[in-house]
């Protein structure tokens, strides 16, 4: 198909179909990636120093105000995990949630990058539109995952630490009276 022969409306429709197909295919692929591939200890998923354990996203983007508005596509593709029913006191449940943040981040980064072919045959104005569309659709969820993951990791770390009983110093030995 020669895109130069398409009207702007037809080109927009072709672009839209491309974007929807890419999103569906990448969503399906990410839902079926083995959890071991989405290891939160991999460098790509580790918090960066500048992110300040996710606080950067609240300070700069006020994420708490809009995070609930971000649609969870995992509900469509990931049938065996429901964030609404996560037991925050269960380490295995938290570990799975952390892996799911990696899955969502992977999916959105891949989808975000796959907009590049549209720039090769779209006029500048339409390319700009798709860049804004793609940014909202993918960067917002990436920010949510980068914000949530350090918080979930801290929760998991707290569960792994033995509770400190009253009257102890926090070590394994009881406190001594002076």
Describe, in plain words, how this protein is organized in 3D.
- This protein is mainly α and 178 residues long.
- The protein contains seven helices and no strands.
- It has helices at residues 8-31, 55-61, 63-66, 74-77, 91-113, 116-119, 124-160.
- Helix 1 runs antiparallel to helix 5 (91-113).
- The N and C termini lie far apart (87 Å).
- Mean pLDDT is 85; it is low at 170-178.
- This is Glycosyl-4,4'-diaponeurosporenoate acyltransferase.
What is the typical, i.e. mean, pLDDT? 85
The number of helices is: 7
Beta content comes to: under 5%
Overall 3D form: elongated
Give the H and E element order: HHHHHHH
Number of strands: 0
- Relative helix content: 55-70%
Number of domains: 1
Class of secondary structure makeup: mainly alpha
- Radius of gyration over alpha carbons? 22 Å
Q: For the terminal residues, how far apart are their CA atoms? A: 87 Å
Question: Low-confidence parts lasting 5 or more residues at pLDDT below 50?
Answer: 170-178
Structure keywords:
single chain; elongated; CrtO; disordered C terminus; 58% helix; mainly alpha; transmembrane helix
Give the topology.
Elements lengths: L7 H24 L23 H7 L1 H4 L7 H4 L13 H23 L2 H4 L4 H37 L18
Helix pairs in contact: 1-5, 2-7, 5-7
